[in-house]
Amino acid sequence: MGLRGTVRVPGDKSMTHRAFLMGGIADGTTVISNALLGADCLASLAAVEALGAQVERSSDGIHITGTNHLNAATIDCGNSGTTIRLLSGILAGGQESYTLTGDDSLKKRPMDRVTVPLTTLGAKIDGTYAPLMIAGRRLVGTTYTLPVASAQVKSAVLLAGLFATGETTVIEPVLSRDHTERMLPKFGAEVTIQEQERGRQIRLQGPIRLQATTLDIPGDPSSAAFWWTAAVLGQDSAITTEHVLMNPTRIGFLQVLRQMGASVEITNRQESTGEETADVTLRTTSLQAISIEGEQIPSLIDEIPLLALLATQADGKTIIRDAAELRVKETDRIETVVSALKKLGARIEATADGMIIDGPTPLIGATVDSAGDHRLAMMLTIASTLQPEIQVLGNEVVEVSYPTFYDDLKTLQQANL
Questions:
Q1: Average pLDDT, the chain
Q2: How large is the average pLDDT for residues 201-229?
Q3: Model-level pTM?
Q4: What is the largest CA-CA distance in the chain?
Q5: How many C-beta atoms lie closer than 10 Å to residue 192's C-beta?
Q6: What is the 3-state composition of the chain as percent helix, strand, coil, each rounded to the nearest 5?
Q7: Which residues are catalytic?
Q8: Which of 21, 82, 100, 334 is paired with 39 by a 20 to 30 Å CA distance?
Q9: Closest CA to 184 of 259, 251, 89
Q10: Angle between helix 13-24 and helix 81-92 axes, rounded to 10 deg
């Protein structure tokens, strides 16, 4: 049975994290509408509250009155890598001592990719894995060149730069998610961006106190991607996702869908919070296998589980390369995705930095586990719309990024009855 209808997915996860963290250190009261209230983002909201910000919820959104003194605290970041890494940058320039910890999964994720760059500004951080011990101190601006594209590392250094004396410059050889440098000016920070031969340079002059603002968070394209996949793979399906973020660093998945033969209809383009938004409609179509690698990967890293599912139904051999970062996500996403799809009858093999999938292959009924990974749970649920005998265990983990996922699925199913 196909899926039809219109969905407004929750606010963008990356933007919500940044809005909460910046609002928590801004002068005045920031009002944020359409924020994602999943477990990961709530970890960032609870963090700024623990540090001294005041948080109120009302019908028009989340109100955060920022603090200019970051209280000493032990903060549980839960499963949120974004919270612990971005917060490290903020707390490095604090006036107190801080401990950042998280759940068992987060404690296995490497933090030196952030802590090492922060030490170039003078930060004192102990720990390669959580818990991290941070002794807040005066920071000095620096120039840091990212060895690989990473929005979290870039953001941590820029946020630390707010507290540093002098200019902080981040050079990235390949463009990664740029929400931090887009959002900082909304809070009154002057950010200079230059495209140069050796990479993109992002500069800010510190120290600077952010100023409160009003933000409307567009829909998360990584959440909308589940419905785009369901529409393309379903039988006689058509789904429109409204008011979705169209940031160029985030819509690599749409470009890959087009490469595979899908028809992508984009309407109602608007501007919101320094970002472009639009309504996106996809319909059932046949797919061709492709190779996905290199500069494509950073803009669709979260959607690779969905790409693997799409590839099982595409004609030919799909090859995904340069995605080794997936091995240090909530799980080793390469192994968990390959293992789960093999159980469903896919012809798929893991490689060191990706996977190879032969299609098309009809999916078979089986019981598969989410392995505690919210994106894997939702991908497998989309697979179950093609093969109803697929049972997904541990699907409550979708609360992390898309609390209303199963409600929206039910609405789309009922629209086709």
A1: 94
A2: 96
A3: 0.87
A4: 62
A5: 12
A6: 35, 30, 35
A7: 302
A8: 334
A9: 89
A10: 30
